[in-house]
Amino acid sequence: MFNSVVAANRAAFAAFGVRPDDDGDSKPLPAERIEADEDLPEWHVELSADNPDRLGVGDRVEFTKRISDNDVKQFAAASGDTNPLHLDDDFAEQTRFRGRIAHGTLVGGLISAALARLPGLTIYLSQDLEFHNPVRIDDRLTAEIEIVEDLGDDQYRLTTRVVDDGDVVIDGEAVVLIDEMPDES
Fold this sequence. Notes:
There is one protein chain. The longest helix is centred in the first third of the chain and has 14 residues, at about 1-15. By secondary structure, the protein is an alpha+beta fold. The model is unreliable at about 5-10 and about 10-25 (pLDDT under 50). The strands form two sheets. The chain has a six-stranded antiparallel β-sheet, covered by helices on one side. A two-stranded antiparallel sheet has the order 1-2. The protein has helices at about 1-15, 30-35, 70-80, 85, 90-95, 105-115, and strands spanning about 20, 25-30, 45-50, 60-65, 120-130, 140-150, 155-165, 165-180. The protein starts with a helix and ends in a 6-residue tail after the last strand. It is globular and about 50 Å long.
């Protein structure tokens, strides 16, 4: 009976876009709180550009976020990647990783989050990724991007990395096109 009541309460919370925290408080899920071109308070963003209106070689962006259990489950639901390595504690304990790890593509998505903080409208043209270390649930990661070459025609080559407390988990390179933002009317 108790489990049925708990399940019913969880379903009711979910229907209203709210989840109970471990301490009994409720707060909206991140997907319920985000708006276009906005940051959530639990994220940290740094842009180092001499002139934010005109990007150049050496300009950098960092985006920091904790990877939560909910992030992993929501990514599995959105992508269809239900590999038990990401979702099943008992299964994952028996693997070389000795526990659950986040999806590599979810972690790589932090690079996209950093790119979205560049001035202008950033459009991916290519991305190469090398995965070096696993990411655990609750790891706080930082995506670091740096413009290393101006290719002309508003295209740039960038180094891309995701680090966990100084350890590189993903290393790569991207090419992006940066358009001016459309006029909002």
